[in-house]
Amino acid sequence: MKTLVVYYSRTGNTEKVAKEIAKALKADVEQILDTKSRAGFFGWLMAGKESTRKVIPQIKGTKKDVSKFELVIIGTPIWAFTLASPVRAYLAKFGGNLKRAAFFATEGGSGDEKAFKAMAELAGKPIATLTVRTNEVANGSYVKLVKGFASQLRKI
Predict the structure, then answer these.
(1) Residues 99-111: what's their mean pLDDT?
(2) Nearest to 52 by CA among 7, 90, 84
(3) Burial code of 12-40, b = ≥16 C-beta within 10 A, e = fewer?
(4) pTM
(5) 108 vs 70, more confident
(6) What is the pLDDT of residues 66-90, one digit of tens each?
(7) How far apart are alpha carbons 135 and 133 in whole angstroms?
(8) CB of 28 within 8 A of CB of 4?
(9) What is the 8-class DSSP label of residue 145?
(10) DSSP for 64-92?
(11) Residue 82 vs residues 86, 129, 137, 148, 151: alpha-carbon distances, Å
């Protein structure tokens, strides 16, 4: 199955998980690139504000055509208990072109259910979801979670 992993990562946690998923599934990878800096405290603050207000920010152009993939796996960090605004922008633009989707989220607390619901509204019901906690990325235990997620996707 031709698969694409698309993700946005502010701190690198979502990127680590995305690359591990791509490795497990031998998938292509595409990073969602923001047009503004989200570094530091004020970047973090603005990120949460945008997500709460469901702002659709500008993102840089993409290279991969999602319609060419049988499965697109979309990854987001949780910002203010929902999906990151650059992921919202990506799904607003390309969500209608996905044949099948799966979602994953990285978080320190909670918000994955709300994020997955918002993502489904933009891209359709996912065939699978995965939530990875920040401490699981830090201690490496996310690798086992990713292997289980990849195994689940191969069976669908």
Answers:
(1) 92
(2) 84
(3) ebbbbbbbbbbebbebbbbbbebeeebee
(4) 0.93
(5) 70
(6) 999 999 999 999 998 999 999 999 9
(7) 5
(8) yes
(9) H
(10) S-GGG-SEEEEEEEEETTEE-HHHHHHHH
(11) 12, 15, 19, 24, 26
